[in-house]
Amino acid sequence: MSQILDVSGLTFRHSGKKHWLKKPEIFALGPIDMQVMKGETIAIIGQNRSGKSLLAKMLAGAVEPDAGTIRLLERKYWSVKHRNARKKADITGIRMIFQHSSESMNPGISVGQILDEPLRLNSSLSESQRKDLIADTLVKVGLLREHFYFYRHMLSDGQQQRVSLARAILPDPKVLIADEPFAALDPTIRSQTVNLILRLQKEMGLAFVFISHNLGIVRHIADRVIVMDNGQIIESGKTETIFRWPQHEMTKKLVLSYQSLVPQQTLR
């Protein structure tokens, strides 16, 4: 597999609001170094406030780091020095899937209008070409072409999540970033969504980086696992290696917590 994403020295430092009785809280993340290969699935795990969600947002461009470099296909996607120099084609290279899909959908416009926006802003396709591509993408994520005319209130939770996925893959990205993309779904819909993402990943050659507290899903779909604590990567490796032979105490705690919830015969 060829390298598709290279992160070097990514750093973020945030000071909380001052209070007259105590010092302001300071949260520092990084420096983070990581690489993602084409078609690879990487899970980032850790306890609350470990920095994993913040890292996902920085990778997706939703939060600006204080230092570091992100390279996409060996081209500089982001750096402090070139923070205003990203091209439209680069911006669409990394896309994000939202956890609560309903909150990311404007209830006042149709699915077609929601999906048309990223294409209208980041492509030179004509209106008819965009409409055809949107209809084809709806089918690709398991919806109907007719869903182009639906509104949010007309869709189930699972269908809303598929619209969110369609919006993410429309600009033909190279990397998908997702923060707890399955947490808000019931078990049946969750299983369908996982399988759909795996199929799309294989068809499109996508790299998938996701945050999850569900270590069952992590073990099922991730090629590699990154463990974070207090803004640092404390351990990383192949999924089965992390689950069978965790080294760091925090990793052991997370794995033991998972093992206590599943039948022991499934761990052999």
TrEMBL record:
Pfam annotation, one family:
ABC_tran
Q: Its topology with respect to the membrane?
A: Peripheral membrane protein
| Gene3D superfamilies named in the record | P-loop containing nucleotide triphosphate hydrolases
Q: Which residues form the ABC transporter domain?
A: 5-255
Subcellular location, record wording: Cell inner membrane
List keywords of the entry alphabetically: ATP-binding, Cell inner membrane, Cell membrane, Membrane, Nucleotide-binding, Transport
Transport is among the record's keywords: yes
The name on file for this protein is ATP-binding cassette domain-containing protein
Give the species.
Alteromonas gilva
